[in-house]
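Team,

Forwarding the record for the chain on the shared tracking sheet. I've put the sequence and predicted structure together so nobody has to dig through attachments.
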Amino acid sequence: MSLGSVLTTVRSGAGSVRSVFDIDRLRANPLGTAKLTVKYAVAVFISLWMLFPIYWMFVTGIQTRATIQNWPPKFLFFVATFEHYVDLFVQESYHVFLLNSLIVSATAVAISLLLAIPAAYSLSRMDVPGGHHFAFYILSTRMVPPLAILVPLFVFYQRLGLTNSRPGLIIVHLLLTLPLMIWIIKGFIDDIPVSLEESAMVGGCTRMQAFREVTLPLIAPGVGAAAFIGFIFSWNDFQMALVLVDGARRTAPLAIQATMGYLEIKWGQLGAAGTMTVLPVVLLSLAIRNYLVAGMTMGAVKE
């Protein structure tokens, strides 16, 4: 938007759209136009400030070693190369670590959904004895610092033979994702009017049928948003995986850490590994963006 013109969109009743330049309004309120221009300029600056580290990570992965070490750094005009990606996937077998992260995160989120949905429904709709305290106890598990339980957890896992295994890491990720997903889904169920389920039960449905046919479709966007947040927590886990798995069972964040050696930091592989680790989350967010938007706007209208 410029100070010389303001583009105003007018929608007619038939749904047609036409654009006009409301120059009279601009001249009548130049201060308001200036404030709006400054607002957009600040928004663009903040967006570029936040996206620049991701862009820097990406370009580092496709630059040559000489370009990476060049000063001042080159961000726009340079000779691109994919040698770091070749080294990452051929020599370091990074695809194995990506697969480990995908299996662990997807399994942990799927099991968490199976447990979180009925748990959240019972806490929201049913008169559970001590339900309020029980809900707080569930959330309190997220208040414990992971470092506080790493040592006893490792000893416990070692005695059970679960160290350096995917099932053991999946169980730990359940501890990370399940409490959060229960509370998120519970909030969405609370926003659904109870009268909808009561009307279904008056019509002959059981409580389970009313939940399956009425409530569950309405909270589907919220469930998708909770699953996405749980997936991010599981995908980004570093501390638990660092202690519990090693070798071929490592996850993607651990593989990124492996590019930083004692005597050398492989900057090109570091940028390539970071890009490939961020990419699945970005693609997933784009695939379910409609559910995320709907989930964030649920509860805007109350009964």
